[in-house]
Amino acid sequence: MIKKLAGLLLLLPVLAISSVAIASDQQSAAELRKLLDQTTTLKGEFVQTLFDGQGKVQEESSGDFVLKRPGKFYWNTRQPYEQLLVSDQESIWLYDPDLEQVTVRSAQDDLQQTPALLLSEDVNTLREHFAITQQAVDASREEFLLTPTRKDGLFQTLTLVFTGEAKARKLSEFHILDNLGQLTRFVFQKSVANETVSDSIFQFTPPDGVDVLYD
């Protein structure tokens, strides 16, 4: 059961240049902010793949997600095991139906430990916690490497990938390199940006009979 929680635990203690180029931190943050500001909400499906240090696939999961800036997300893993991760910008809930258990923690001071929350955060907040480097790949794809300023988190780097036309790019995948040298790749599919999303989806009420743990 510990293994099946590994992907979501990463999210817990976890939004056009033709040649490759690297910009300064300030320039990178400005470009990242421009891209994030194009998207207020994003929802769709995801595939999550964990690779070991040699690049061998260890496990894969899939489900659906909703992001709403700033600070709200709904991350519902359906296969191979059901798990739900929800944040309303104040609290983070991790629900495991098989364990009949909910873990609750504050989202306020958890930025470096919560990659999923990073995707919905304000760029100025990100700059307080990360060095941001833009790595533009081609005219339809841009990547940003975020490196934590603290060294006691669960991951070494976070890479955000945006694809599409320059004026309509949206987040299409992100990669997390953890401190064990493992890479987790999240790919978004059938995603739709800027649709109206009710805040009710980012609220979670534990079902009757489950254990509620406060971290």
UniProtKB/TrEMBL annotation:
It is found in: Periplasm. GO terms for cellular component: outer membrane-bounded periplasmic space. InterPro entries: LolA/LolB/LppX (IPR029046), OM_lipoprot_carrier_LolA-like (IPR004564), OM_lipoprot_carrier_LolA_Pbac (IPR018323). SUPFAM superfamilies: Prokaryotic lipoproteins and lipoprotein localization factors. GO terms for biological process: lipoprotein localization to outer membrane; lipoprotein transport. It comes from the Bacteria. Pfam families: LolA (PF03548). Keywords: Chaperone, Lipoprotein, Periplasm, Protein transport, Signal, Transport. Residues 1-23 form the signal peptide. Its main location: periplasm. Monomer. Participates in the translocation of lipoproteins from the inner membrane to the outer membrane. Only forms a complex with a lipoprotein if the residue after the N-terminal Cys is not an aspartate (The Asp acts as a targeting signal to indicate that the lipoprotein should stay in the inner membrane). NCBIfam families: lolA. Belongs to the LolA family. PANTHER family: OUTER-MEMBRANE LIPOPROTEIN CARRIER PROTEIN. This is Outer-membrane lipoprotein carrier protein. The gene is lolA.
